[in-house]
């Protein structure tokens, strides 16, 4: 009933004929476009062009190698950055956690409900607390402590594990360790974190204490790709909630938890649906 | 600097090749697509296809008659409903009001700030109270009372006025008269109203009293195209605000006013940007 | 560190001296008021007065029988409806579910995180699907099918179970059976339900299909006390989320699930904190 | 019909008997409490206590000098900071603007609609552009340019004008000049500004450009009391709106304008209703 679909993400300098060339490519080979969303930023010559094209390939006349070759030719001609993915090749997700369960439950429940466009395949932690949660949802749990041997060794174990699992995406669901530049270089644009404030306000530790101190009337949470610059990576999703003087820090923490899990899950959902395109220090999220 | 652009709205039964045919049409004649937003509803054969295509026609090789002819041919081939408009042909808007000023001020201020993609050209009212507001913003004010001669005569005057003004859109900015089916037949899909509740809840009169009585925790406002069925027309925009037991009916009215003017202005803004497509009893609003 | 506190909820016809009498009562017996929130509705003689008073009883000079007697005397004098509760007597909550897990997980996770001011003590269901969820959180699961013997017998089993568990509150966390008037008479004001729409819009079944059909731009969820009139009980909490034409019914269902669990949990949270006062067909929720 | 009411705002270190003493004071002298909202922050000995008490003084047995004396005695006894105001002594508001009209229109329209609990009595500007707006609403307009004689002289003219007008509150409705410490010392806690970002994010100039650059998904606005530390004063109200990659800087500016006027007007509304209490670097806003 549901045919296989392909999703093409494109960014480049704006030029005439891009949409025509790409949609013609789909049409000529027997595809049917289900969703197209395209935007050209104003700004004269250096305007950027962003596109997401999802099409049915049930009766496509090219195989995937053929598609790759054809798109490669188009990419050279138009100087495109492009990325193609197929609905029958689901992304494999590994979740990193420490001791806090709310984001983990949220993601695993969504997987169980069939909401996610990818597969969570394992949970990794530097603590044992959440092992039973992974088990309850039928997922392997990998305990990788950051021990005496130090963080480098733990990271190497993580990297080896990710490689052996053939993982595509790492989600830091309240993982309380900073990843090294070496890790992030290998996993560039493929690690999503949840920060418990409305970035760029309250960068760093204890944002709810900062928020209480400053007397803000709204608190937020931010999901972003992780880069070596702490809390500076491209933002994928944000949301906020209203607070008042009646909220003690523990109430802010509780309200924050509600935000964190929703914002993180929405970001993961968008990434797995191939709706996120990174452009420099920011993202384009197609709705 | 800003070139003239054309905006094409299309709805039809989904078929392969639609996007390719339309974007190829633009490309072949020297247009550049600035924004494309397309969606095919799932639902097998009877899935609907909706598209908005905005393109630069600075160097287009067809004139507008030529565009109309070519699109006509495409429309026959693909059984399209389509509508094309040009950024240099701004829609002419007439606002109908009674005595309540908040929506009128909001729209006229936005016009002054250059926010609207059309031109408000006149204010019509069955009362004299808001004449000075129109005057302050430099707009003609037409007083058409619904007098002894009855509503039919007043409506005929309105229709004549709209014709003489070459108007494209009527906005009911808290106009407290029901328009007749005859009026709405002529102005089908071209009259926008603001209803002071979250439709379909609280249809009819005194929605804030109903909301207070029912103890709802949120109130809303709804902008919609007007059809002969009261409060049943296609919804363009809605928004809500949180209320509590501390809000007396007069507070609900005040909060409601804030919603009404924002929701109405956003609906008018979307309509004038040609981002609204009517499909049966509902709308598609491209973002 | 945290002393025992008492929470007093009062509603009555407004009269002078109420706040003074009640706060003086607390003060004279050595209590300290932590939170007081009081509101008198305008409306002349028949204005209603609502109050929530939370006070520290660490050094109170009356025991609970003494408090009950004194409050009884005040209640007679001022014709008060009143209700007192103590922080060391936590309410006992039983959750009713069918097959849908998202609201159940949400409530049980909040219990585990220590967010709730009461104790969930059991899960009751007419299906076996969610037994493992209860087990995972260490809670007894009672399977009470609505079998051939009919609904009356099942309800009697439920009532007997609630009595034997000494339960205070029933939460219908997507329980797909209508409770009988007989049940609701016994559990009047003590059954909370989640309705998957913004009441009073879309009363009844399949609200997301109704919402899609009507083309609304916002969907909602409503938590309310259950009364024999379906979907008409006093509303405790509501929230909404924005939707668009890109959302198929399954997307509305998914977005609705997010709303449902948050709205239900917030309502249960408020009830257990003794912040909800029922006044006729509506509630006062102290913030 | 509406009696005169008094509003008492109190902050102090928490002590037992405060609510009883204050409500007893009201009751003994024949007042009736309409609204009482009180909160004691947790935090042992140094917990802060905040209260707002509004009461009907139609039949009060003390005159205002008597009330002042009695409250003075209570204040000494309990070491209270307190502030009393009367509904028949409305605050006198002067609005400072530069060239941007949207916040000014919003405030003046609310005055015309009778929404505000105080009186806007004049508009002051360093430009002439908005003179006709003041005139349209029947308000005097004072043109005080910041000319060759320098800012000091202009500020002195402003201070003299405010004194001669017997003003209580200054609202900076997009006034593009920084007030000197000397001015703010005299008008401490009585100048409200609107900052066009979600503070503490994007302090300083061009916040919408910063927001676009950073790719945030939500933008905000903040109303705050002005202190000599730029953008650091106690926050009264904040709100946010969702944005996307489709929003160019000019769209952010437009959406920001909508936020700014609402947030500023809500802050002014709260201040004039005596619902704002300043506590150090933050505010308590009673709802």
Give structural notes.
The structure is a homotetramer of 287-residue chains. Chain A is of the alpha/beta class and 287 residues long. The first copy, chain A, has 2 domains: 5-86, ACT domain (Alpha-Beta Plaits, 2-Layer Sandwich); 92-285, Rossmann fold (3-Layer(aba) Sandwich). Helices cover 33% and strands 29% of the residues of chain A. The first copy, chain A, has helices at residues 18-28, 64-78, 102-112, 131-136, 151-165, 181-186, 207-214, 249-272; strands at residues 5-13, 32-40, 48-56, 81-86, 92-97, 119-125, 141-143, 169-172, 191-195, 218-225, 235-242, 276-279, 282-285. In chain A, the strands form 3 sheets. A 7-stranded mixed beta sheet of chain A has the order 7-6-5-8-9-10-11, with helices on both faces. In chain A, strands 2-3-1-4 form a 4-stranded antiparallel beta sheet, with helices on one face. Chain A binds chain D through residues 39, 41-42, 50, 198-202, 213-218, 220, 234-240, 244-246, 248, 281-285, 287, and chain D through 39, 41-42, 50, 198-202, 213-218, 220, 234-240, 244-246, 248, 281-285, 287.
